[in-house]
Design a protein that fits this description.
44% helix; five-stranded mixed β-sheet; 3 domains; five-stranded parallel β-sheet; 12 strands; binds 5-phosphoarabinonic acid
Length: 475
């Protein structure tokens, strides 16, 4: 995979409003960044040394998937020819990337476009087990013309496997023995139940490498197959990621945007009490990129133990805010509430279309002034206004600038945030790739549901003996 991209399409990180002197008070000084230089260098050295190994398999996905890409593109073409709907069954890292990329790179009303104007079948990602939602899906798809992509690395996630059971049953009722032709498994090569089912029924299968964790898997078949099915240029996404990779090799934070991002967030979090990280795209296309980022940052960095086993309880709370919509909801809090937030704007320089505001309402100057401008100008003016309001109140903010939203810039953005997360894990000396806090909830819910497997016996007992809710506290 080539990493040659048009340099005009490079995304940029503008940290002006993070720096001392740019705000009436606060900010990070170049000296504070310099004081972390040896730790930043060590973090980069560690990530570079471990590339492709352990849990860092995602760093190599741009370079080692040639055969996989051919297979994905061939399969995607077959799916487009045969099916009217493509449904991803998955959750967490097996769903948020596909949702984010589809929203970013396809028509915002993709599913509502007539068949000839869509790059592929209608697209759904079922990342919850709300019974009403499942039944609603069955109301709107023609199951006999639907392909289901079951994505679960562990092959054991209850949410995904219950969906598998429901939908394969429904498929059998409609298409009989041909049901396996409607199911594609994306899973681990060896672990879990899905790979066994895939072998037993001859399901078309894509493999998630062991070294690629769920939330780092968007550039593996987890994200690439759904994207390719919907007509997205997956090779351009990978080229964008490779280009960002080439920019994230230096030990010097001023020469490595992801390392600079990690160093700044580390300083804010550990020295300045900035515990909330608001990601605020000013583009509907990037709205679910913020959700994807929130999982990456939260699940990777919210940890209670260092790698040396010491108690730490670290992590910034990531949250999504959509510009301009949330100016009318959250911005008051960001400008005047506690000094505990950093706002990361995602700014788009050139939208894919323009919308002119006609002249009119001459008798109302406050409306008339909008005439002759475009929504493109208005959204950027509002972003700049929000930025100014934050700066004036000494609220830290930074901007990731995307020249356009396209496959190349989205690939860069994904890799930028993944690298920043890995560096942050190094600086915090935590394991950014596990999620023990999620496991506890999983096991407890299986125990509640009566999973009789021996491994849940102790948890069943523990749950049975948990304190009961008191009626007087329920009004
Ligand atoms: O990032 C992660 O590892 C998790 O969010 C997983 O993606 C999520 O729990 C789903 O796991 P699986 O793909 O095994 O079904």
């Amino acid at each position: 995979m080539t990493n040659t991209i048009d340099t005009a399409q490079r995304i940029r990180l503008d940290v002006n409003h993070m720096m001392e002197g740019a705000l009436p008070s606060g900010g990070v000084s170049p000296r504070e960044i310099a004081s972390l230089s040896s730790r930043a260098g060590a973090a980069n050295a560690q990530v570079q040394k471990a590339r492709g190994t352990g849990w860092l398999g995602w760093t190599e996905l741009m370079y080692n998937q040639d055969a996989v890409l051919d297979d994905i593109e061939k399969t995607a073409a077959e799916i487009r020819a045969k099916f009217s709907a493509f449904v991803v069954l998955g959750i967490g890292g097996s769903a948020l990337g596909p949702i984010a990329v589809q929203q970013a790179l396809n028509h915002i009303r993709y599913n509502e476009l007539p068949d000839g104007r869509r790059g592929g079948p209608r697209f759904y990602v079922e990342d919850n087990i709300d019974p009403e939602r499942m039944n609603a899906l069955l109301d709107v798809i023609d199951i006999g013309k639907t392909c289901f992509n079951v994505i679960t690395k562990s092959g054991a996630t209850a949410e995904t496997m219950s969906q598998y059971l429901i939908l394969t049953e429904a498929l059998k009722a409609r298409v009989g023995d041909k049901w396996p032709e409607h199911v594609i498994a994306t899973t681990s090569a060896e672990k879990g139940n899905l790979i066994r089912l895939a072998r037993e029924y001859g399901l078309k299968t894509f493999i998630i490498p062991d070294s690629v964790g769920g939330r780092f898997s968007e550039l593996s078949p987890v994200g690439l197959l759904p994207a390719a099915v919907c007509g997205i240029d997956i090779r351009a996404m990978l080229s964008g990621a490779a280009d960002m990779d080439s920019r994230c090799r230096s030990d010097d934070p001023w020469q490595n945007p992801a390392l600079l991002e990690a160093v700044l967030q580390y300083i804010l979090m550990t020295q300045k009490g900035i515990n909330v990280h608001v990601v605020m795209p000013y583009a509907d296309s990037l709205k679910y990129m913020a959700d994807w980022f929130c999982q990456l940052w939260a699940e990777s960095l919210g940890k209670n133990l260092t790698r040396d086993g010491e108690t730490c309880h670290v992590g910034q709370t990531p949250t999504k805010s959509l510009g301009v919509t949330d100016q009318h909801s959250q911005l008051q809090l960001y400008t005047e509430g506690p000094y505990d937030k950093i706002v990361t704007f995602l700014k788009v320089e050139k939208f894919r279309s323009e919308c002119a505001i006609p002249h009119g309402c001459a008798e109302f100057p406050d409306v008339a002034f909008l005439g002759g401008k475009t929504l493109n100008q208005l959204i950027e003016a509002e972003r700049a206004g929000t930025e100014y309001a934050l700066v004036k109140q000494s609220r830290l903010n930074q901007t990731v600038i995307l020249p356009e939203v396209n496959a190349c810039t989205v690939g860069q953005l994904i890799f930028f945030f993944e690298m920043a997360t890995a560096y942050m894990g190094e600086l915090l000396n935590i394991d950014a790739f596990n999620q023990p806090g999620v496991e506890e909830s999983k096991i407890a819910s299986y125990a509640v549901l009566g999973n009789t497997a021996e491994k849940y016996a102790a948890k069943r007992l523990e749950m049975q003996n948990r304190p009961a809710s008191k009626a007087e506290y329920i009004l």
